Amino acid sequence: MRSYKLIAPAKINLSLEIIGDRPDGYHELVMILQSIDLADEIEIHSISDETIRVHCNHPQVPTDKSNLVYRAAELMATKFPQALAKYGGVDITLNKHIPVAAGLAGGSTNAAAVLVGIDLLWNLGLTQTEIEELGSILGSDIPFCVAGGTVIATGRGEQLSPLPTLDHIYIVLGKYRSLEVSTAWAYKTYRQEYGSTYLRDTNDLASRAAAVHSAPVVKAILAKDAVAIAKTMHNDLEKVVLPSYPQVLQLKEVFASQPGVIGTMMSGSGPSVFALCASQSQAEQIQQQVRQIIPNEDLELFVTRTITHGIQVAGK
Ligand SMILES: C[C@](O)(CO)[C@H](O)COP(=O)(O)OP(=O)(O)OC[C@H]1O[C@@H](n2ccc(N)nc2=O)[C@H](O)[C@@H]1O
Ligand SMILES: Nc1ncnc2c1ncn2[C@@H]1O[C@H](COP(=O)(O)OP(=O)(O)OP(=O)(O)O)[C@@H](O)[C@H]1O
C-alpha cells in the first residue's frame, strides 16, 4: 500500500487590501500572505476501489463532499482518470490543529496537501505551478498554501509573487472556539459598505502596484524589519468584522496593550487575531498574561512563528 504523510501549515495575512470588485463576483485584492508553523497533519494512502474516503479528528469538520480535501481528491480523479484506474482511490486522514473557520486557511492548506500527496501517490510529476493552478480551481488561498513562505498575492489571491522569507518572527494567536466568520459574508458586507470607495482601475498595473496599504509592508519585509512590518500591517476586512464581533475587537485591544507586542491584526476574514512579538520568551509571557486577563475557556491561544515553506512531505 502506498502512503504519504504531509504537514499543512496555516497562514496569516500581513496585509489584505481590497482594491476593486470583479465581474465574477470576487474581489480584486493585494495581500501579503505568511506561512506559520501552526499546522495540520495529513495522511493519504491508496485504496483498491476507486473511491475517496475522508476521516477527521475534529467534530466541526465534515468528512463528506463539503470537505475541501474531498473536492481536491475529486478534482485529481477527474483530471487524471488513467492514474485513478491504475493506482486506485484515496483514503485521507486529517489530524486538525489549525482552528476551524478562523481566517487561517485551514481547509485550503489541507486541500493543498492532498493535491501534493496525490501527485506523489500517482507518480504524476506535476510542477509546483501546475499544482497551484489546480488549487486555484478550488479556492483562492490554495495556490499560496502550496507555495508557502512570504508572498504578495493579487487577483482573487491566486496570483503569487514571492518576497524574501521571514523566519522566526514569534506570534501569539487567539481564536474564540465558538466564533466563526463566513468569508463570503465578510467580503459581501465590505462591498455593501465600502464598494463605492473603490477608486482604482484594477486592470491598470500601476494602480495595483500603488496599493497604498501593502506597499509599506513590502518595504518593511525587504528591509527584514519586524517592527516596521508590525507597525504597517493592514486588513480591510477588520472594518466590517470588528464592529460585528466585539469579542474579537476586545482581544485585539488586549494584545495591543501587552508590553513586548510590536503589532496586532486580524487574519483574513477573522475571527482569529495575532500579535507579532519581540521574542519567543515574550510571546510565551504574553500568552500567559492574556490568559489571565481573559480567563474564558472558549478562547484558544497559541504561540507560533513565521516559517519559510508551504506543504511539506513528512514521510511515506
Ligand atoms: C480571506 C482570505 O482567506 C484572505 O487570505 C481569502 O481572501 C479567502 O480565500 P478562500 O477562503 O480560499 O476564498 P474562496 O473559497 O475562493 O472564496 C470564498 C468566498 O470569499 C469571497 N471572496 C474570496 C476571494 C476574493 N478575492 N474575493 C471574494 O469575494 C467570495 O464570496 C467567495 O465565495
Ligand atoms: N479540511 C477542512 N478543514 C477545516 N474546515 C473545513 C475543511 N473542509 C471544509 N471545511 C469547512 O470550511 C469552513 C471554513 O473552514 P476553514 O478552516 O477552511 O476556514 P478559514 O481558515 O477561515 O479559511 P480561509 O482563511 O481560507 O477563508 C468550515 O466551516 C468547515 O466546516
UniProtKB/TrEMBL annotation:
Residue numbers binding ATP: 99-109
Keyword Acetylation listed: no
Gene Ontology molecular function: any one: 4-(cytidine 5'-diphospho)-2-C-methyl-D-erythritol kinase activity
Catalyses which reaction(s): 4-CDP-2-C-methyl-D-erythritol + ATP = 4-CDP-2-C-methyl-D-erythritol 2-phosphate + ADP + H(+)
Domain GHMP kinase C-terminal: 218-292
Family: Belongs to the GHMP kinase family. IspE subfamily.
PANTHER family recorded: 4-DIPHOSPHOCYTIDYL-2-C-METHYL-D-ERYTHRITOL KINASE, CHLOROPLASTIC
NCBIfam families, per the entry: ispE
Name of the protein in its database record: 4-diphosphocytidyl-2-C-methyl-D-erythritol kinase
Source organism of this protein record: Anabaena subtropica FACHB-260
Protein's gene: ispE
